[in-house]
Amino acid sequence: MSATPPRHHFPHECTDEELRAKIDEYAQPLQSGGTTESMRWAPLLQLGLNEQHNRAARRLADERHEEAQRFNATSRRVANVALAVSVASLVFTGVAAYYARDASRSSERWETRQAGQLETLHREAVAIRASLGQLQAGMAATRGSVTAKPRR
What we know:
Elements: H1 16-32, H2 36-39, H3 42-145
Helix pairs in contact: 1-3
């Protein structure tokens, strides 16, 4: 069986099926017997196999490139979500710090007012004790000067 000569621009213009068929066709004479006639198809067979290998490598590279693009897109989304979470966390931290500071100031103001009120209560208590002491002293003096009447 003699192989048919290749089309002009073999193997680049062949489809994958045509390329596979031509490779099988060119391999037949080499497998059946290594004559000089069949050896002239060896370079074409090698060319076809190289083209088949290049196409497979190109497909694999394209698939890897698409995977890398999907991965990059996913990575960008994850980075954007992480950034949004970081910003939200920063905002919540700022709000919490504001309210904590406000509560601290409010507590300080309350303590200052309470200290003033306690000072006032202390002065009033001292004044009440002094008045009470005077009343007790006055009552004791009054009891000592009153003579007891005998009881019948």
